[in-house]
């Protein structure tokens, strides 16, 4: 996999990688999980950390200092991301700081309105000030109609044992409200454009060697002679070893060479599609347009595409490195053999 950068390999499969997770992002996600454990409470560790470092202050506004244990500093450092992953659900508001907890659509009143005119207005005030009989009463604190509307979106559930945080990252589908590492990791990681082309790589049942060959072809990273030359590697003969006529490039050996044409013609005949494709993108488009023929057909089409690509590449390598030649009929036979094995395996 030396032809693809480590960074790209770490993308999710639908975003052009192989789904590896970089250690740095796993570490960040683990730190976020720790921050969640701290605010959701219920453990001796969280209670101890709270009593030692937050005391009667507020977790969301306290300032890190040198006396803080390193774990607590890590928790504080993740507050901003944490806000985007949680929502407050009220029992009666008595456990929620009116000004400083981010209970209004992931923001605090302090974030939205700035500091109150009198600092003492913040002290000891909880959301119970504006909840009566299980309903929001924002007018009791002279909130504007606009802010009142945002407040109403916070759920009150008098049946809860207490006000609580639920895990609900922005953009993630609503779950159980419990922490999930997958959605936590997605919140931390960098994202890249999605491409459905990669479903032609990561098809279930496809041999790994074929997946990787199609993957590198899609990314344009197979080490053909034209690319080796461009890297400064001495290439005595730049010609394609399959036809010995044209310079070797990915476009040539997979889509223009006479051998490639024989193979695509046969695969197109079996699949019942048009064989005028000029690149991997064209083939993928044609096959995708026909996916209405059913899941089984579409899977077979992807298996045939991958087996064809891999056998052309294998034949090229055997001719270069082993000086062995298999005639087109033999290659087609090998493709059929592998397709049947993968279809029935
Ligand atoms: Zn050729």
Tell me about this structure.
By secondary structure, this protein is mostly helical. The protein folds into two domains: 20-188, no CATH class; 196-344, no CATH class. It is built from 15 helices and four strands. The chain has helices at residues 6-9, 23-40, 44-54, 70-77, 79-83, 109-113, 145-152, 181-188, 208-219, 225-230, 250-256, 258-271, 280-289, 295-322, 328-344, and strands spanning 86-89, 131-132, 135-136, 164-167. The chain has a two-stranded antiparallel sheet. α14 (295-322) crosses α15 (328-344). The two termini are 26 Å apart. The mean pLDDT is 89. The site of zinc ion has 7 residues, from α11. It comes from Iris pallida (Sweet iris). Residues 179-264 form the Reverse transcriptase zinc-binding domain. This is Reverse transcriptase zinc-binding domain-containing protein.
| Small molecules in complex | zinc ion
Q: Mean of the pLDDT scores?
A: 89
Order of helices and strands: HHHHHEHEEHEHHHHHHHH
Rounded to the nearest angstrom, the distance between the terminal CA atoms is: 26 Å
Q: Count of DSSP E strands?
A: 4
In DSSP terms, counting alpha (H) and pi (I) runs of 4 or more, how many helices?
A: 15
Biggest sheet layout: 2 strands, antiparallel
Uncertain runs? none
């Amino acid at each position: 996999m030396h032809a693809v950068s480590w960074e790209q390999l770490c993308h999710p499969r639908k975003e052009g990688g192989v789904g590896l997770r970089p250690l740095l992002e796993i570490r960040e996600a683990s730190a976020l999980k720790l921050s969640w454990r701290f605010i959701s409470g219920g453990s001796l560790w969280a209670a101890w950390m709270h009593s030692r470092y937050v005391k009667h202050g507020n977790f969301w506004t306290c300032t890190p200092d040198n006396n803080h244990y390193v774990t607590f500093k890590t928790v504080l450092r993740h507050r901003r991301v944490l806000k985007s992953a949680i929502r407050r659900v009220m029992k009666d508001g008595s456990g929620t700081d009116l000004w400083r907890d981010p209970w209004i659509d992931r923001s605090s009143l302090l974030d939205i309105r700035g500091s109150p005119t009198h600092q003492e207005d913040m002290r000891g005030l909880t959301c119970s000030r504006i909840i009566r009989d299980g309903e929001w009463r924002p007018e009791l604190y002279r909130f504007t109609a606009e802010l009142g509307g945002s407040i109403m979106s916070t759920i009150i559930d008098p049946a809860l044992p207490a006000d609580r945080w639920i895990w609900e990252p922005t953009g993630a589908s609503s779950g159980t409200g419990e922490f999930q590492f997958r959605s936590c990791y997605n919140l931390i990681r960098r994202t890249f454009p999605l491409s459905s082309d990669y479903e032609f790589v990561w098809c279930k049942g496809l041999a790994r060697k074929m997946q990787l060959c199609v993957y590198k072809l899609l990314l344009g990273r197979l080490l053909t002679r034209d690319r080796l030359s461009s890297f400064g590697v001495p290439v005595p003969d730049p010609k394609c070893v399959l036809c010995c006529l044209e310079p070797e490039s990915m476009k040539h050996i997979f889509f223009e060479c006479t051998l490639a044409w024989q193979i695509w013609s046969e695969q197109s005949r079996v699949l019942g599609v048009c064989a005028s494709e000029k690149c991997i993108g064209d083939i993928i488009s044609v096959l995708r347009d026909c996916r209405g023929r059913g899941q089984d057909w579409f899977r077979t089409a992807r298996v045939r595409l991958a087996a064809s690509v891999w056998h052309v590449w294998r034949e090229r390598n055997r001719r270069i490195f082993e000086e062995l030649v298999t005639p087109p009929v033999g290659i087609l036979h090998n493709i059929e053999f592998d397709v049947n094995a993968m279809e029935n395996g």
